[in-house]
Design a protein that fits this description.
By secondary structure, the protein is mainly beta. It has one helix at residues 29-39; strands at residues 7-11, 42-48, 50-57, 61-66, 79-84, 95-96. The longest helix is centred in the middle third of the chain and has 11 residues, at 29-39. The radius of gyration is 17 Å and the shape is globular.
């Protein structure tokens, strides 16, 4: 016989249910990315033979795009682009898509 660990995963709905972050315009781009990831987090509890502490996981596809850089035009519900200027400051409202 082989012991196989039992995995149980429980997760919550996103902590904040929003799709735009106008309050981040004028902020540092990396700061904006961190805020978006935190605000879109889900609390994950995992059990693999024993309890693993809660983890908060937010959007992982939050990216900084420098002004004028080419981007694809597809719409994705798991992506937020943070458009910044040459100094790394957010210049337009980060939005899901």
């Amino acid at each position: 016989f082989i012991d196989v660990p039992v995995i149980s995963v429980k997760q919550t709905k996103p902590v904040v249910n929003k799709n735009r972050w106008p309050e981040l315009v004028g902020k540092n781009g990396q700061t904006a990315v961190n805020i978006i990831k935190k605000e879109t987090g889900k609390i994950i509890q995992m059990y693999i033979d024993k309890f693993i502490p809660k983890m908060t996981l937010g959007f992982t596809n939050v990216v900084i795009v420098k002004g004028g850089a080419p981007v694809t035009l597809d719409y994705r519900t798991d992506r937020v682009r943070v458009f910044v200027d040459d100094k790394g400051i957010v210049k337009s409202v980060p939005t899901i898509g």
